[in-house]
Design goal:
alpha/beta, 6-stranded parallel beta sheet, 41% helix, globular, 228 residues
Length: 228
């Protein structure tokens, strides 16, 4: 660098994605909302996203096979699409569920258009994000915006989104036993689940709205334009 030239200092900064909290919001009556979707009124757990090994769908299913017999009436939803090459993976999961006699309690639902996803988050009491690896991962934020706590693995940005013991729990990826224990303990305490639901929505409103993302980007652009 020549004398008199300004130094160049580059600062890395992360700007977290935001959620449209007007679109993703808690339903007025979760049980009634489930009825409108043709689901049981009872407690419902969901795992949403592509169905494949990377997404940990098998970990979720294995955990549910162990959890559901301990909690009468609870339903688990697996919603998403399996690409052709992942068809055998999905078929293996279906067969496991059938052999366990739980086809009426672990439901495999087809992928729905993005615009319909808020309605399905609103049907849940608990989201499980079981990914083995992830670039970022929006599902916990979308769920929490709908007042749904999340049990998520410590991959991608999940540990920046979920507040341990306040809006859900964090577990290691690929650990069926830890997932089973986390879900089991959460279902065993309806009061905790309700408190997490309220806190999850507030958590998103405090710093994860789409407006917050836009404001952070605008601030960054202004600083760059000003030479800051």
């Amino acid at each position: 660098m020549r004398a008199g030239e300004p130094s160049c200092h580059v600062e890395a900064r992360s700007i977290i994605h935001g959620i449209d909290t007007g679109t993703f919001h808690p339903p007025r009556d979760r049980r009634a909302h489930r009825r409108s979707l043709g689901l049981s009124e009872n407690v419902t757990i969901g795992c949403f996203g592509r169905i494949r090994h990377q997404k940990g769908t098998d970990v979720f299913v294995d955990a549910m096979l162990a959890v559901l017999p301990r909690h009468a009436g609870v339903t688990a939803l697996v919603m998403g699409r399996a690409a052709h090459k992942h068809g055998p993976f999905l078929q293996d999961l279906r067969e496991k569920v059938a052999q366990a006699g739980l086809r009426d309690r672990i439901l495999f639902l087809p992928e729905v258009p993005v615009a319909e996803m808020p309605r399905w988050y609103q049907a849940l009491d608990l989201l499980v994000a079981p990914q083995r690896w992830e670039g970022f991962g929006l599902t916990p934020l979308e769920a929490m915006a709908c007042g749904v706590p999340a049990i998520a693995t410590t991959v991608g940005a999940f540990d920046e989104l979920v507040v341990e013991g306040e809006t859900g729990l964090l577990i290691p990826p690929g650990d069926v036993e830890r997932m089973r224990a986390a879900v089991d303990a959460t279902l065993a305490s309806p009061a905790t689940l309700q408190q997490w639901s309220t806190t999850a929505r507030r958590h998103v409103e405090k710093g994860f709205r789409i407006e917050d993302e836009a404001a952070a980007l605008n601030t960054l652009y202004r600083e760059l334009l000003d030479g800051g």
